[in-house]
Request: fold
Amino acid sequence: MNRDRTSRRLPVFMSFVVGLILTIMPLPEAIEAFRPNWLAILVIFWAMQLPHTWSVGTAWIVGIILDVSQGTLLGQHALALCCVAFIIVRFHLLMRVFPIPQLTAAVFPILAIYQFLLFWINGVAGVDTPLIVYWGPIISSTALWPVVIILLSNLRYGKRSG
Reply:
């Protein structure tokens, strides 16, 4: 039974590792402002699909790891990801039945809440950043959401049937 639990959790751990790598990976300055929020997308997906296993606690741990890796205020991303995970867990039954275009439209404001919390925390801390740094990831993450949900759904359900 322990082996079965590990085999079910391995794709989730690997997706978070890949998301962290994509978040840390350097990009050219021209597109750096449009870097997708990979870890926020993954927290949204896994909290929606498996809310009893991957929810607010996972979001907190992933957020702390992201804070440490990026050198931001400790707890900034953790708080924002916890709020996102809470919203998703609260409405996961409703969101799981949405078609992909409607789900994409629902993910947009959730990503905006995530970025607003980061903006607010940076404002309180006195960190000055241009607005494109906050709006760019919302746009790129929303545009990538349909692709990510299809790939991760295939990974999750393909693993079960194989």
